[in-house]
Amino acid sequence: MNRQTDAKPRKRQFLAPEFVRAMLAGHSALGLAFAALIYIVCLSGTLTVFMHELQRWEQPNAPVIDGRATPQMLDNAVRNGQAQALKDNAAHDLFVMGPGTLSPRMTVNYHDHETGVDGSWIADAEGNLVARIKAPWAEFIANLHMALHLPRTWGLFLVGLTGVALLSSLISGLLSHPRLFKDAFYFRRGGSYRLQEADVHNRLGVWGLPFHVVVSLTGALLGLSTLIVGVLALAAYDGDSEKAFAEILGPRPSEDETAAPVPDLQAMIAQVRAQHAEAVISSVHIGHIGKVGQIVTISMRSPGHLPFGNPYIFDGNGKSLGDGGQETGSVGQQILGVLQPLHFGWFGGIPIKVIYALLGLALTVVTHTGVTIWLARRRDKGRPVPGWERVWAAVGWSQPLAFATTAIAALTIGHSRVWVYLATLAASLLLARFTPDGEATARILRLLSGVGLTAAVATHAWIWSGYVTDAMAWYVTTALLATAILIAGPAVRRPRAATSSRTVPA
Amino acid sequence: MPSTAFDPQSLYGLAATLLLAIGLGLLRSSWSHRGGRSLHRLAGWLAVVLGVGTFVQGFGGEVGTTYALLGLSMVAFAVIAIGLERRAARERPQREIALEPEDRPTNWPRAISKSLLAIVLAGVASIGLGVAFAVAMPLAPTDRIVLGGLLVPVLWGAGMAWTLCDARLVRATILLLIVSAVGYGIAFLPKVLS
User: Which residue of A has its CA nearest to B187?
Assistant: First the structure.
């Protein structure tokens, strides 16, 4: 992060100017190297906070359920899910997410890693499977955030590395800001463009720091976990990563494939409730369902805790094998439990999601202004790089446009293919080639983004008019239109007269 | 944060947010005043601590602390936005000139070496230390594995920041190699000895 200082400091500063200048050089180099990746991961992460709401927007006629899952409801959903999985030749692992944990919908997923077949369904309040989940846009955004649409292992690693780079930037940014407290509330518009951008960069960076550290740290760990556990397995588990994961995640199903009945889930839930009367059901996972070696994990959430639910584990005969300790267990177990809720902001309903989105957007702006500060500094020093100014404007403002085009593709052809995203990005970069400066590039792309998002909403209205039963669809539509206005609105106004570094895109 | 308008948690949330707003307002007043106002600073920190405490009291330690940190960020953004200062274009007081990054001569081989150090070697060293922690610390298996895993991005990030800030490539290389040797030595020693 940039800093501002007195020309003649009256007292010795906590960090020596030479150290700060060296830190700033490192901060600048790292920021520039990873800027585009961090920006895309942060912006798509901001949208991923609302993944379940976007899913509901894409399928606004599916049932929503008031309140939490009952044992009977869950039991029915598991049995109906198993029957459907058998039809689809995918009855291996089955997962039911109850309503009220992540969204008011009950979903059933099954997967067989041997046949490679999987299925995802929405269930009604009786546990009947009523519709296959079809939310390609939400899936596209989530996959962009988690794996950049690369092959999963490589994508996770690259996103994890991006998290490390972000964490490193936060460390170096903090250490290059010795007037952290003195400047803590300065926010000035007008005057030097570079200092104006530095104010935005520093204020959003510093005051959002707890959030920025938590999401970068948890994101890095989630992304790098396969690599870390792989090395750990080599060192201590004979190279078997499954064994290492089992050490953390608890008992795994055995390989005995002899058929067996699905155990009585209601009895297991009653067993947990005998110990934890206030616990509500979050989800059920059955590994190797309908086999002798099956393992049932029932996640139940007690009040006052962040995890989606503490896993209570049972064997195929309904015998308790213990719990994951994610609510009251050891420090490692509790950290494991909060990793995902804290990373995605899925623990406190819509108000927390809105705060997460605002802070996620703040981190995105911090990343964007980091580069614009560098570009403005080059211009102020008489060494402008207009080509890079246009490229950065294209990278930044092509993203909302690409989200709009992928949404339209998802709604019309049923897929948000990555080529639609890449084509939008390529077209934006091509457009930048023919614009006079970065500001013009940003202005055109902002207008196109506004038009694109409005077109996506119009497409949705055209397809779903008269069929919407889930009110969330109207809220998402309103939010998308508001976003379109906020993005395009400032671009409609006439551009201001250029000052020294004014042509750097805002 | 609270789910309904007037339940006890809503009131705790409201009171805590107000305390944070008062605290940050006082801190702003102290830090923006030349020479500082120590009474405002003290009262400001006190109100912030009380705000965090009120969140914890209302929502419990785990959820309350999380809400407090989120609330602190949001209230700070609001205080900053309220204090927006508009200035005439081109006005640029001397005291606001930003410190510049160190100007370092660079070339492609040096840039590639730095990247390898910061991304590859710092990564190798941090994974080594994290796995050594996960293997050797006298803790329950889940604790040492999760804490060891959590150490990796922290050490990698710190290593990245340090190698990119340090102009001397040889020093960073030697230190990271030593750290890697120690980390992997500890991690793989039990396997080698068994």
Answer: A235
